[in-house]
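Hi team,

Filling in the usual template for the complex we talked about on Friday. All components are listed, including any nucleic acid strands or ligand strings, so the model treats them as one assembly.

SUBMITTER: L.P.
PURPOSE: interface mapping
COMPONENTS: two
RESIDUES: 828
SEQUENCES:
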Amino acid sequence: MAKKRPSIDYEVCSCCGACAAKCPVSVIEMDVKKQRNMCLSVYPRLADDNGCIGCGICAKACPVEAITMYEYDENGASKIIEVEYAPYEIIPEKCKGCTACAKVCPVGAISGKIKEVHTIDPESCIQCGLCFEKCKLSAITRAGMATK
Amino acid sequence: MKGYTGKILTIDLTTGESKVISIKDEVYEMILSGVGLGVWWCYRNIPAGADPLGPENVIGLTSGMLTDTGSCITGRWVVVTKSPSTGGIGEANCGGTFAPGIKACGFDSIFFTGKSEKPVYVYIDNNGPQIRDADHIWGLDATEAEEALIKECWTSKKKPVACTIGTAGEKLSWMAGICNDRGRIAARQGVGGVMGSKNLKGVVLAGTKPVTCEDPKGMKELSKRCAKRLKLVTLPPIVPAGLLHVARFLPEIEMGVDGVVTGVIMGTWGTAGASTMTAVTGEAPIKNWGGSTKDFGLLKINRVDASKLLSHQKHRYFCHSCVYGCGGECDISNTKYSKDGNYSISHKPEYETQWVYTGVLCCDDADMMLWVNEYLNRAGMDTISAGHCVAMAIECYENGLLSKEDFGGLEMTWGNAKSIMEFTKMMVERRGIGDAFADGVKRAAETLGQQTSKFAVHGGGMEPAMHDSRFDEHLAILYATDPTPSKHTTGGYLYYGCMHLWKKVSWAPRQNVVGSAKDHNVASEKESMKVAASAYYRRLVDGIGGCYFAMILGVETYPVFEWLNIATGWNKTPDEYMFIGKRIWTMRQLFNIKQGLDPWYSRPHGRMVGEPPLKVGKLKGKTVKIDDMMKQTWEVYGWDRETGIPTRNTVEELDLVRLLEGPVEQFTTEFSTFNAIAKI
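RESULT (copied from the run log):
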């Protein structure tokens, strides 16, 4: 399965830490690195590649667009063009209440009882797409995107 | 999708009842988020004459309107409450990583009222708040408590952020602040004492909600422009700060430089880089505002200047979304006093701490200042106020008003590092005579007797910052007329020159690039207009979560007005935004009036305005005609010239009667109510 990961351009990065603060799974850490004026300064670094969920919220948070999301598959990397803000939604007619999406959601934005229609809290959804990929019933959609 | 969440959270610590309240867009259009929203809520919910340390007081933690929207240098959070030290509106702001945490929980502001029976902390995540027991961390210093809370609450993948109070807050000191990021502190106005009075040890935020705005791409385009200008304006760390002594060769010429130049100083040395210049030009007060460089000369200054601090710096760091980076982390393990408390890592002292514990106390022991910086950061006490208390104690001792026995055997003399350290501990712990000084110099003078009040340097109960009001009359007016008196981060003659407001705001007076020092010593309508412009602009910057140092980059580099329009989709002109700033400024004064304060209360202490004038030094013979200037400036604000009370015309023009006294249902909707007491 293709995985998405951020790539940080240190020529552009301002070291402000907005990405690290916003990362919903706290896998971006502030490390120390030498700047071109010989000062040591903090810099963001993807500290845990396995823990990264590829949600791209770091790229959205970066005020100077130093972070680009890439999708890696068997053919290599391809840049991801982000769609505008649009949280995922569950199509009630298709949802069987299997709870797979709720289990995979990293921020607990999906709620619902087993065998009942689940719902996604649009305010909490970070648009990582893990639920979209997990749902075998194609019950999850997003404005501007086709269902699976 | 306007940059703000449109919701606030209120928690009653007495009953545990918690409410999520929707705020209508109209309110944001009138007063923005951040400080405006905080003052508005406090005005409406704190009854007149409320005890600042009583359960009826409200304390709000507010994030900025533009925090986390793709703008840069907008990551500061503001604490708003009724201040115990002034009795009026209390405001303190702080950088670090706490502000985005508030918005990530889905709120613009979080307000606490009531008083818990026992120590508690509040945990908030996407699901709402929980009030949890804090017995196990009560008594820890702010840094230890923060680390313990984060460890305890880090149960999901997201690392939480936390703010805490230290010993000073627990002991209800009027000089206590609220800390985050291991000792960064919202220090002023005694806000930590208010939090301590509610038995609230800390607040932990673990939300992960995204923040959106109308045009994220547009926001980032402006941020990139701002960052590009600032990115390279630092010098190698080997450049000595002593170079800034050159300022003394320019005694009569002052330059309202492009604000980006300040980035060179801040980026290289941090705010302490200013100390060399301020000392030689007369801007930095010496010997409790009664001395000059004759008492604390260049040799001593060099021993404590920014180069000395830089020699301890491990690396620079940045606040959330900041591209400026004035902060630094220092290794103080090899300093003289580090064994006392086992301190190793500390924040680089900023200018105020550096100067108040050196120049004001005539002490050239940089190691002592580094120790005090870490000690007070952990104790959660304001270094500016604490330093003034030490200075007052020394003068009382030197003038025979207090004896060695009163100080428990301490030799309280100028520059005596050991005594200064011990007395600082006594204040934090409220031990011996330290108890009398733990609530600031005004309260100390009331306790110790009228004869000590001549050494109690304050304005309206708040100790002033390390920028001499006799040097710059703009500062004097702002110290005197700000509803949070003695606040130094609002403006000043040189700072106004850096803001370049006249390029965007139609009525803001122009200031020449090169002027004479005499220019800012004039009580004229034009100068008052400049003061008013920087005061209103500052409220906007506070409202967006911005930083004072970003503000002095100039409106072209730091595009506040454009960002606001892009984030919200509004189409307001800079003049309209300045009108919002005026509304917030006046609302703060109305809060003070409601609480029964006479606006003359903030008239600065005699030493701050040269009554009597100094006999030596750069400020020799200088007296500020503060009464005339206050009247003149009040008039420009639209407040009564004699009483300082906003006039009926002004209040009506700003639509404040409806906003402050109209039915609350016009502006809010109750979203949900629940009991937040944790069931563990």
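MY TAKE: DSSP finds four helices and nine strands in chain A. The CA atoms of residues 90 and 140 of chain A lie 4 Å apart.

Thanks, L.
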